[in-house]
Write a structure and sequence with these properties.
- By secondary structure, the chain is mainly α.
- It has one domain (about 1-195).
- It has helices at about 1-25, 30-50, 55-75, 80-100, 105-125, 135-150, 150-175, 185-195.
- The relative contact order is 0.13.
Length: about 200
């Protein structure tokens, strides 16, 4: 309960600032988008609840941030730095604190996970034209921090699911003649799938 209160307190400024953006994004989300967001929240709650209390609070906060970023990206095709960078910095600090106090997870693995996933997407952004944007790189790094902290298997599963989802979304977007496709939902889907499927 104390960890949950501290996590909520730390996230308050980010949530307040994000609320303004979500008001605008919410007006552009279709019924399907709202359904997917609701399903994501349910899955995130289940993934967080399966972990020890301290880890559950931080996991819930980060998964909520990833879902919020995905919603904004789907509506506006833009990933806010406040969420992508904020989730990474706050997540790394909070997860390190959880590791030091409870022995759960690994802070070094979290840092490596962020570097691996973020670096992978950065390489893709540099090599593939009209693919990833810098917002995708930042979100991938933040997702990698959480997944890497949990385990190497969780990180691998999250990257695999994210890349499959990215491929499907890009093919779908090009089939519809879209010049740019919002990929934030793919990274959120990878994080949710990995955290709910891979055993603790």
């Amino acid at each position: 309960m104390i960890w949950g209160a501290l996590a909520g307190l730390a996230a308050t400024p980010a949530v307040a600032a994000l609320a303004h953006r979500l008001r605008h994004a919410a007006a552009h989300l279709a019924v399907t988008g709202w359904g997917l967001l609701a399903a994501g929240c349910v899955i995130a709650g289940a993934a967080a609840a399966a972990r020890p209390p301290a880890a559950a609070a931080v996991t819930a906060m980060l998964l909520a941030a990833f879902l919020a970023a995905a919603a904004v990206d789907a509506a506006e095709q833009r990933l806010p730095d406040l969420v992508t960078i904020g989730a990474g910095v706050l997540g790394l600090a909070a997860l390190t604190a959880v590791t030091l106090t409870t022995g759960t997870g690994s802070a070094w693995r979290a840092l490596a996970g962020g570097a691996i996933f973020g670096g992978w997407i950065l390489a893709g952004a540099l090599l593939v034209r009209d693919g990833y944007g810098l917002g995708d790189v930042k979100l991938a790094a933040s997702v990698g921090i959480l997944l890497g902290w949990a385990s190497w298997m969780t990180l691998a599963a999250g990257i695999l699911v994210s890349q499959i989802a990215v491929t499907i979304m890009l093919l779908h977007g090009r089939h519809r003649g879209q010049n740019r496709t919002a990929l934030g939902p793919a990274f959120a889907a990878g994080a949710l799938a990995a955290m709910i499927v891979v055993p603790i």
